[in-house]
Amino acid sequence: MTQAVPTQLPAEWRDFFALTKPRVMSLVIFTGLCGLLAAPGSIHPVLGFTAILCIALGAGGAAALNQWWEADIDAGMKRTAARPLPAGRMNRTDARDFGIFISAASVVIMGLGVNWLAAAILALSIFYYAVIYTIWLKPRTPQNIVIGGGAGAFPPMIGWVAVTGDITLMPVLLFLIIFMWTPPHFWALALFVKTDYANVGIPMMPVVKGERSTRRQILIYAVLLVPIAAAPWFIGGTSYVYGVASLALTFAFLALSFPVAFRQAGENDTMKPEKRLFAFSIVYLFALFAALVVDRMLAYQGWI
């Protein structure tokens, strides 16, 4: 690692909050909450709140550790240069200690307050993102997002296990949905910020394998997402409400992938298809998991 960026202390609470990547955390919290609400059985509201709080703290801690490790990389990218560490608003050691503290606290509180299986999966997700993805995969392989996608796929499984205390096929499928969604979601972003990654030597797919290969793989993953997103309905874990919603949403995702996949080099430099796919991919995941909860609530009321 190179020399740390200059610092200007003291950091404000907003800088510590920014370390947790709140935009990313909102999706993590939402999918974790949906996993908890969709799980069979019930959980005391206080314990349910505790579980979601721990998921949020764990995600925030992993994000802080990610930014601590990548402070110099972030300083070389336009998209991340304004973050607290590269901007010099925070001491690098404080960011590391903050990340370790809230990560450890999230696991201990989850174990003591909810159950230790959920705590173990939470600990694995933190380690996966902060170490396996950030330190090992990201700087070494263009498959970093494919393999590292597991880190962001754990929250609905954790929420489900917080209620049930065990792992069944349904939470595994929820994990797989996010796992398969991550590459096309992130590669759509990487296509229009690839210069940033190239400048700092990160081997993202568009940088190492080129745009053509990246676009082709976006389409492949979008195709594979269709049966995986509908799988909870196929196995009888949900009703037709989720099934119809999943097919409609995923076919829309697939339709937006086609203009990205077949766009020719030098054509339309504004990258509108890529930006459109990236924006919709976020809406897609929120809507898909919301449909899962709606399906569960309707079934609970006996309306389906």
Automatic annotation (TrEMBL):
Enzyme class: transferase
Major place of residence: membrane
CDD domains: PT_UbiA_Cox10
One BP term from GO: heme O biosynthetic process
Membrane-crossing segments per the record: 24-43, 49-69, 98-114, 120-137, 158-180, 218-235, 241-265, 277-294
GO MF terms, alphabetically ordered: protoheme IX farnesyltransferase activity
Catalytic activity reported: heme b + (2E,6E)-farnesyl diphosphate + H2O = Fe(II)-heme o + diphosphate
Coiled-coil segments: none
Keyword S-adenosyl-L-methionine in annotation: no
Subcellular location: Cell membrane
Anything else known: Carbon 2 of the heme B porphyrin ring is defined according to the Fischer nomenclature.
Biological role: Converts heme B (protoheme IX) to heme O by substitution of the vinyl group on carbon 2 of heme B porphyrin ring with a hydroxyethyl farnesyl side group.
Protein name: Protoheme IX farnesyltransferase
Species name: Erythrobacter aureus
Source taxonomy: Bacteria, Pseudomonadati, Pseudomonadota, Alphaproteobacteria, Sphingomonadales
Gene this chain is encoded by: ctaB
